[in-house]
Every structure is written in C-alpha cells, then in structure tokens.
Amino acid sequence: MQWEAVIGLELHAQLATRTKIFSGASTAYGAEANTQACAIDLGMPGMLPVLNERAVRFAVRLGLALDAEVAGRSVFARKNYFYPDLPKGYQISQYEIPVVGTGHLDIELEDGSRKRIGVTRAHLEEDAGKSLHEGFAGMSGIDLNRAGTPLLEIVSEPELRSAKEAVAYMKKMHSLVRYLGICDGNMQEGSFRCDANVSVRPVGQLEFGTRAELKNLNSFRFVERAINFEIERQIELIENGGTVVQETRLFDPDRGETRSMRGKEEAHDYRYFPDPDLLPLEITPAFIDEVRAELPELPDAKRARFASNYGLPDYDAGVLTSSRELADYFEAVASGCGDAKLAANWVMGEFSGALNKAGLDIIDSPVDAESLAGLLRRIVDETISGKIAKEVFEAMWQGEGDADAVIADRGLEQVTDSAAIEAMVDEAIAANPQQLEQYRAGKTKLMGFFVGQVMKASGGKANPQQVNEILRQRLDG
Fold it and tell me: What is the rounded distance in angstroms from the CA atom of residue 118 to the CA atom of residue 67?
C-alpha cells in the first residue's frame, strides 16, 4: 500500500518587543534567572494585564504580509492548565476569534515549482517560563524570565505532504518574520520554534489519519528528521496491525527518534473562556492602513525585482533575497561596483563562504558592502584579475585594509602591458617545444598548459584575457 503524509505546522514566533505582552518587564535574552519577571508575570493577586500595542502592530504586519484577514475585533482567552513554569495556572491566548485569520504563503519546492500553503490563523499569546533540569540534583529549577514574552502562533493548514515541504514552509516563514522585523528568528534562543502535527493515510483517501504532535522543534534539521521518523513510525505501526494514538511526542536528536510525552489534549481540556481582565481587541481600518504603510518590500516582490532589474537568474535572486540583511548587502555591493552579476557571484560565493567558515552573521562581517564593492571595482577596471581578487579579499577579511591598500602593499596590480605579456608568451613557447609540437598536431587542450606557464611567470598578475588572445595568435600562427 502507498501512504501519504499529512503535515501541519504550528510556528511560535517571539515578537521583538522590548517589553512583555501584558507587562512592562523586559524581554531581553540572557539575564540572570527570575530577574525579569514582575508581579503580573508571576500571577500575583490583584495584578491586571495591559496589552502591548506594539505586539498588536506586529501581528497585523504579519497578517498583511500573508494576505490574510485581520480581525476588526478579536478576543483574549484563558487557556487553563497547570505546569510549574506557568505561575498563573493559565495562559492568556486567543481561541475562537484570533487577530489574524486565513491567509497563505507560497513556497518553492526542490523541482523549482511553487506551492501555496494555507495559513489557518495567527494568534497572540504569552509565552510560559522555562523549566531547567541541569544542575539540580533530583529537582528542576524554574526561570520565569520568559513568562509573558509576546508570541505569535502561526498555524498552517494540513497541506504539507513531506518533511522537505514542511522545512521549506518553515524557512519561508522564518525569512518573512525577519523581513518584517517582528521576530529575530534566533532558533537557538527559542525565538522561533515549531510544533508539527503529523499523520499518514493511504494515497487517495480523503479522510485524515490520527495525528501525533511533535513538540518544540528548534532547528530546520530537527524538523526534517523528526517528521521523517514519525512518518515511518506510523506507517510501520499501521502495517503491523497497530493503531496510531493521538498524543504529544518529543524528538530525541541523539537517537534520531520521537518518543511519547503525553496524551494529546483537546480544546475542551483547556477550559477556554474569555479573559475577564482584558477587553476585546478592536483594530480600526485606519490602524491597518498605518501598519500597511510601514511594510518593507517583501521577499517575493524583492526576488522578482532582482531578477528583472539586475538580470539575475531566478535561483540567484532567490538566494540573495533569502534574508533581508543579505539582500541589502548585495544591493549595496551591486550599486557600488556597477556590475550586478559580478556582485551576485561574489556575495553568494567568496563572501558567504567566508561567513560560513567563520560562523559569523552578516552584520558581524569584517568586510562591509562598501569595501567589497571597492574590491570588485578593481576587477571591473582590470586593475586585478578575479584570481588575484580572492587573495585581496582574504587579506581584507584579515583586517589588512581596503582593496586599494592591499593591492598596493602586496604589489598585486595586474600586468596589462601588451609588450610585457608578449615577451612572457614567447618565452613560454620557446621553453616548451615538445608541447608546442603536440598542440599544433591537434592536442589543443595544451592551451591551458601554456596559459599556466605565462601566469606562473607573471606571478599571476598577467591579464588572463590578454594572455589567451596573444597565446592563440602565437600558437595558431
């Protein structure tokens, strides 16, 4: 029997506000445990929540970017459950009427096609605290600094059919929230995390199978591995006569498997009811228009513009718009050097490779866009060759100065004097009569050998185009 996976994702994006969603406590990451939890976050008696307007603004920003419905009126509810890191005994969330309704997100598949994934809703809620298990012999510690941090939970339709599609959707949403400036997307710090609902069904069957929820996946790699394992687990279980149980499961990255955590709760288990301390949230058309005016150019629009205005292949445009920072960097380099294709090749190649090797974010790069543009200008005006430029770039990366300073200090300026190059060509041909005879007998691949000899003699400084032209004249003459 052939099986089909049915996957829906719940993405939790911590909103990049300075204070919490219902209190004035700081949301800064990394503070000493329990130093950023005020009386409201701790659920002390008599404390009243006050909604953070910026969190609402960020939610509307996402709704507009997803071409989604933004509710004129939405309601906060209490989601009741007991857990040590939830001091109030309930979480303030949205249930029946979320701030963002149905929308969509288009993703790119491996074969180059696009698929539209429906977004069911996005609702505002507060984050819980954090349980700490290391360093407490036989006990757990509770850090409530995170309690009350504003979250936007983004729920997809169950329209993803593979782990790779799920990762593509998650990456696209991750890029979008960063473009919008509403979430820093730091997955290691828990700013962007994922719950995946996974079920399987026979191909052709319309009815969904029983799903399992995989909780707190905080990397793209873990999402793919966890979903793939869960799909295989469910298929094997059913084919062996078993039954999939609706439950919450955790992914163990060391063992590469999911394991049962608890039975999956239904909505009625949480006893949702409207929060009596918070009035319904009313969003006016004027407020929505104000937020719409703040929207930056979105990734898909930027990608289309890069392909159109700069003449870039669709693949290059996609890579360069994968993050707002990378897109801005590329545009600055392209503007500064006047050659968009050359800029794209260098930003995607040498520059991105250096960042990855050093484990740096683009904002921490030792070579800024203006400096890289300065280097590429020297390729364009033929001061140096592309090969020499790589040496110059490495020196710039190590802090030896800008391109012009490195070229001058190391004496790397390209040799473009035709007479000098002709002399080196003649010398290379005279020194290798056997290779000359073989070339003229039809072994034309030896052109590369002669080019190498000339470039070696020039210390790599001879203009490659001139070397090839002069060599061809001499060898074919």
Answer: 11
Residues 6+ apart with CB under 8 A from 3: 200, 201, 202, 203, 231, 235
Q: ∠ at Cα 443 (441, 446), nearest 5°?
A: 125
Bridge partners of residue 196, in order along the sequence: 9, 214
pLDDT of 463 over the 90 cut: no
pTM of the model: 0.84
Identify the three-state secondary structure at position 269: helix
Distance from C-alpha of 462 to C-alpha of 455, rounded to nearest angstrom: 6
For residue 449, pLDDT over 90 is answered with no
Pairing verdict, β 247-252 and 212-217: parallel
Q: What is the pLDDT of residues 325-379, one digit of tens each?
A: 999 999 999 999 999 999 999 999 999 999 999 999 999 999 999 999 999 999 9
Q: DSSP class of residue 254?
A: T
Q: DSSP letters along 350-404, please?
A: IIHHHHHHHT--GGG-SS-HHHHHHHHHHHHTTSS-HHHHHHHHHHHHTT---HH
Radius of gyration in angstroms for the set of CA atoms belonging to the chain, rounded to a whole number = 29
Cα–Cα distance for residue pair 362/301, rounded to 1 Å: 22
- For residue 267, what pLDDT is reported? 63
The CA distance from 357 to 366, in Å, is: 13
Q: Where are the beta strands (DSSP E) in 98-191?
A: 103-108, 114-126, 130-132, 141-143, 150-156
Give the model's confidence band at 416: pLDDT under 50 very low, under 70 low, under 90 confident, else very high.
low
* 199 close to 212: Cβ distance less than 8 angstroms: yes
Answer whether 120's CB lies under 8 Å from 9's CB.
no
pLDDT tens for each residue of 367-406 = 999 999 999 999 998 888 888 899 999 999 999 999 999 9
Give the separation between CA 271 and CA 446, rounded to whole angstroms: 80
For the cut 90, the answer to whether the pLDDT of residue 49 exceeds it is yes
pLDDT band of 415, cuts 50, 70, 90 = low
Q: Identify the helix (H) or strand (E) that includes residue 197.
A: strand 192-202
Highest mean pLDDT among 54-58, 142-146, 264-268: 54-58
